[in-house]
Design brief:
GO terms for molecular function: DNA binding; DNA-binding transcription factor activity. The chain contains eleven helices and three strands. It folds into two domains: 8-103, Arc Repressor Mutant, subunit A (Orthogonal Bundle), CATH 1.10.10; 108-246, Four Helix Bundle (Hemerythrin (Met), subunit A) (Up-down Bundle). The protein has helices at residues 8-14, 21-30, 39-56, 67-74, 78-90, 108-129, 135-147, 151-174, 177-193, 201-217, 221-246; strands spanning 64-65, 94-97, 100-103. The protein is mainly alpha-helical and 251 residues long. Strands 1-3-2 form a three-stranded antiparallel beta sheet.
Amino acid sequence: MTPAGGSLEDRWYTTCISRCHVAIVMLMDLTTSSGAVTPDSLAQAAYSRLCALLLSGEMAAGDLIQERRLAEWQGLSRTPVRDALNRLETERLLTRKGRHLFVATISVHEIIDILHARRVLEGEAVRIAATRMGQDQIATIRAAVIGMKDASDVGDDGHWRVDDMLHFGIAEAAGNGEIRRMIEALRRRTRMFGLRRIPGRFDIGRQEHMRILDAIEARDPAAAAEAMCAHIDHAQHAIVELLQHSGGGRG
């Protein structure tokens, strides 16, 4: 559903002139070692920026996507933006209805399936990572988790930054590129569903993260897998419980 006052892209477009520095910054970041900007690098930049807007909620479920406006806002031609949108559609972060593209809505049924898939993949990843993750990385993640003392102080971005540090760190330490890429894709869709809106998950999730780290530090693959699976199971149960109390859900 498009918010009142026009589409999100319309609102961005009205401030496009004051944000023209975006194109300059992007070009500075995208130069190759030879000093050239490649089509692939422009498409990757467009993808990264759009993905960040989707995951932050600035582009909300149901928002209409307008390729031309997005290209103008980013100071790019439509080709790299179209490539980025096609990639986001393939990853199911965007959905097509007829000729129009919209920000995807993650249904309750889908998030349950996503969490089930994550349970399988991340349970195996942490089992492997428990024998490989370095002590310095464990200590860094632990310090970040301990530093999240209050949900209101941390905010959504801070919460997801630490959450990604743990889950992506484990996926990377497992050393399997295919598993890592699947986990990353599933976690992006998890974030779009918005698990942060489930009451009570902040403190519980923080404790669960500590148990996962304890098992990794103890070099106990079985305990690490058990802690990870319990962590994901509890998130799923919290969704079901929330729906039972609210009497409905998103499909």
